[in-house]
Amino acid sequence: MNARPLRFAASVLLLALAALPLAAADIQIFPSDDPGVGFNDPAAATPVGGNTGTTLGAQRLIVFQEAARIWGALLPSNVVIRVDSSFPALDCDAISAVLGSAGATTFHANFAGAPVENTWYHKAEADKLSGTSLGTNQASILAQFNSKLGKTGCLTNTFFYLGLDNNHGFNINLLSVVLHEFGHGLGFQSAADDTGKFTGSGTNQFPGAFDRFLFDATAGKTWDQMATDADRLASSTNTGNLQWNGPRGAVYANAYMSKRPRLVVTAPAAAAGIYVVGSADFGPPLAVQNVSGQIVAGLSDSTTDGCNAITSNVSGSIALIDRGTCNFTVKVKNAQNAGAIAAIIVDNLAQGVAGMSGTDPTITIPSVRVMLADGTNLRANLPASASLGLDSAQYAGADASGRLLMYSPNPYESGSSVSHWDTTASPNLLMEPNISSDLGSTVDATLAAFQDIGWFLGSTAIPTTYVLPSSAHAPGQNSFYTTDLAIMNAGTFDSTFTLKFLGHDRDGRTGPPEVVRTVAAGATATYPDVLGSVFGLSSDYGALRINADSNQLRIVSQTSTPPPSGPGTFGQAVPAQGGNDVVTTAAPKLLFPLRQDGAFRTNVVIANTTESPAHVDLQLFTAGGTLLGMRGYDLDPLGMHQIGLVILEIGGPGADGTSNAVLQVSTPTANARIATYAAVIDQTTSDPRTVLPATLGTLGTNGNWLLPSSAHAQGKNNAFYTTDLTIANTDSTTASVTLKFLGHEKDGRTGPEAVRTIPGNGAIALTDVLGSVFGISSDYGSILVTPTTANVKVVSQTSTPPPDGNGTFGQSVPAFGAADFVTLAAPRALVGLREDAAFRTNAVIANATDQPAHVDLTLKSETGATLATGSYDLQPYEMRQIGTVITTLGGPSLQGTANAALWVSTTTPGARIATYAAVIDNNTSDPRTILP
């Protein structure tokens, strides 16, 4: 909507983890509304989006409880965090509203366990660090949200959406707002007021833990180092130069943020410079290859707002248009209709830079938004020569060194400045001052900031639960499957863990006795045929739970069977799941592409990772988005269920012959956490390919995907590998993607491109993508997928006929997004590698940027000793496959090595490296995918 941005109110005082901490914080909601209002509002409500409440008050409470669950699962504390909550009538008018506010009830300093003296900590964090509830106030956080929203005169007809599935449309996602405000109450807030003065008085006037990480690049000081309140006040309006100095924040920026959009003006001299801009949710994404031209005024007769047909000559130029009166999409579409090659929208308020929301699939030109002062300068100096695109060396929302920027507009904005991330961030971040429609239910960089300010201090590791959804020592169809388990400790301390076999189709709390094991720092613990060797089982299958004292374990299984012909094996690798991997009420998952016909069948596993019963719903769709069927399953506590021939079970006999199906897995059970995956199995060879769950929702604004490897090429033992590519669109509108084949061992920027269209809520399958799309007769390499929507997911399957020619062997490899790459601050490990007479391992490294990158490889033994090292300099978008990686790095003496781990790192700032390994049976040529 083209109105003043919806702002989160300031609080009154005010890398997601790999798996779920056992010692999770207990955050409890205490409603304080009067009878009949707020949380006690008895108005009837229809259950929506996983929210099962039947009154308005009950649905509000369920949203708050879900936000408490999300934050509680991420933060370690043994002290209850009480949130006193209410829904009073807050300030609002027809175009803006205070959505809510939350803050700590008290600050504490110099308590027992305080990491830094003379420093204020929010009560919830102070309680955690001290191990006890401090002060006399029982509540840690006070939260208030606007009960008037949507009513006449208060953003009329724009309501809070109370579902938990982020399907909020044009309404405001209450879950995102509550997560944001709880973030303030938990510690994301400066202890300085609007004048730069710290909380307290006299000798007790201290900076907050948050303030010690606010860094002014101009002054070269953090806020606690500044001598005066006036210095901090000046810093609070030092736009683009107030930064987060925490190391974990920099890790997040390097791993997740997109390249920074920018406008470069070269003439006239009065307007020349680099302008920070906000990007649009609609139209094509900006690219490193800039759009260049003259900036000219886009006029509708005498008006500058572009709300009517543009009559000035903008053909072949960049149209400059003022904000106001109508939607952003209307303005840009009018510029496009008049022949403009791009559009710049000038803000009508003196505030920080922000993006533009809206949807119009017919818009084909890029557009950006500039601040009022910058737009005024441009308009005074037209025409201006300019280029519009991405800064290849800098991330959106970060400075050149990778520090995340804080919101510091000039003039100062009370309630928004300083205690929020900057609005130039892309993808949008939870703790920006403006509500964004694509936030979902994750806490993104906020968790990194909490790591920096000390939330995780006080222990050497975070107790964590991992669940392997399936393991076996059991017969299958023409096969006998066994599961090998590898647990690598990436931490610096020895880790103790407890293995529990949960079985299948039963209450998993029962079963054989638990087994306690220890793995040394840097070492890998391996358990061949884990069900037989550890639990003494002769025939069974089911899930495994691994309770560990560390969140630094990397756990992967390989389940395999001899083929019907006898020699060799075929199988699949399945990683353990936890944290954001699992299905929750707020995070359904997709499994695709699934297939049931004469050549393939599909089995699906659903496993309850909690000790309470849970209900799971499955919906099966065709590639075109047509619903084939749905079915619900009730799981026991810690119960696992395998659904054989899932397409026939849900879609019925008429679904036989279905390929490229999409299965949505969801749960309505509050606090449920469901692990899931699919195995697409060749009917002739019984070879399975692992299909891991994809999260519904956005990767980030127009985020790209990199498929690290694809093939139409000859392999060893007469294998001939081809890659099928499936692209799913979880948006309701049509999307298009640009596919670029980057090849291998060369500069990938010169590769061929092709464009494909995907229907809303549908998928397309590109069989033998290199042959059918690019006409390649013999080649292999990575593929860059650039979509027009952030709701695209990409999966590949690469396979070959076995030596006898019947059926196929293969592996499934997902495309890599922002969260998956190796970066300067985030090395990755590939676990369970092997080279001997039975197996060999190939590793892939692929540069996901258009800049050169250096990659270092460190091969470690089962005991954690370094076996070999290697380094590679990759050209822009270059992919390198390292065949027989163990002996390539370490030489012939390492032949016979098993259970090795390969660490992949980079020393190049801004680099993003996709990596995975394929452990290949030397007899059958069957590969198993090892993801980082």
Describe the structure in your own words.
With 932 residues, this protein is mainly β. The chain folds into six domains: 20-254 and 401-453, no CATH class; 259-395, Glucose Oxidase, domain 1 (3-Layer(bba) Sandwich), CATH 3.50.30.30; 464-575, Hypothetical Protein Tm1070, Chain: A (Sandwich), CATH 2.60.290.11; 581-695, Sandwich (Hypothetical Protein Tm1070, Chain: A); 705-818, Hypothetical Protein Tm1070, Chain: A; 821-930, Hypothetical Protein Tm1070, Chain: A, CATH 2.60.290.11. It is built from twelve helices and 53 strands. Strands 1, 21, 22, 23, 24, 25, 26, 27 and 28 form a nine-stranded antiparallel β-sheet that branches. Strands 14-13-20-16-17-18-19-15 form an eight-stranded mixed β-sheet, with helices on both faces. Strands 38, 39, 40, 41, 42, 43, 44 and 45 form an eight-stranded antiparallel β-sheet that branches. It starts with 19 loop residues before the first strand and ends with a strand.
